[in-house]
């Protein structure tokens, strides 16, 4: 089952509560947290997540593009996030952090930048609920999808299947109607979409269209046969 997570990075920050309601048919609301250190951009933090969690019934999927997630990630669970993603490049103790996120009641997710290979982290996969493959360099919305990430998505799906894990595989960056089918065919089942949703005349209809495309591609994908 394909999941669509609209990214509020592409929403109107002055109307976040309304923008969240505009995509109530989405599976999750993707919240990009950037600290102007790990990535060259500054967005929002714990107080906004707390406010958003009160303003919408859609669960929050917080993607932390920050330094020292070991220190800060648990606070996002306390603020109301249902899923918290940390970058393995920034985490000092990823297994301990994933366990702490889970212990506090949220799904634990680990993100990899485009140049970070998945293979060294194979043994960590059972500690996670989701793995995020970045399909652009993190830090800015509206970037073009990197096709060279498709083999990495396939390899990651193979590792998930090899270990028989119920691990969601998320992609983030340049996901749109022109790219989502390739991502689904390669093995992704959770899709972050920013401008493809919030740049559309009808964001809710855009979510439904993206989900339909992803599910059609998944139905005929080799990895999903017998899944």
Automatic annotation (TrEMBL):
Pathway annotation from the record: Carbohydrate degradation
Reaction catalysis annotation: D-ribulose 5-phosphate = D-xylulose 5-phosphate
Keyword terms: Carbohydrate metabolism, Isomerase, Metal-binding
Cofactor(s), names only, from the UniProt record: Mn(2+); Fe(2+); Zn(2+); a divalent metal cation
Positions contributing to a divalent metal cation binding: 30, 32, 63, 172
Residues that coordinate or bind substrate: 7, 63, 139-142, 172-174, 194-195
CDD domains: RPE
Entry-linked PROSITE patterns: RIBUL_P_3_EPIMER_1 (PS01085), RIBUL_P_3_EPIMER_2 (PS01086)
Annotated EC: 5.1.3.1
Cofactor-binding details, from the entry: Binds 1 divalent metal cation per subunit.
Catalytic residues as annotated in Swiss-Prot or TrEMBL: 32 (proton acceptor), 172 (proton donor)
Domain of life the protein comes from: Bacteria
Entry's family note: Belongs to the ribulose-phosphate 3-epimerase family.
PANTHER family assigned: RIBULOSE-5-PHOSPHATE-3-EPIMERASE
Function: Catalyzes the reversible epimerization of D-ribulose 5-phosphate to D-xylulose 5-phosphate.
UniProt name for this protein: Ribulose-phosphate 3-epimerase
Organism in which the protein naturally occurs: Streptomyces gulbargensis
Gene name in the database record: rpe
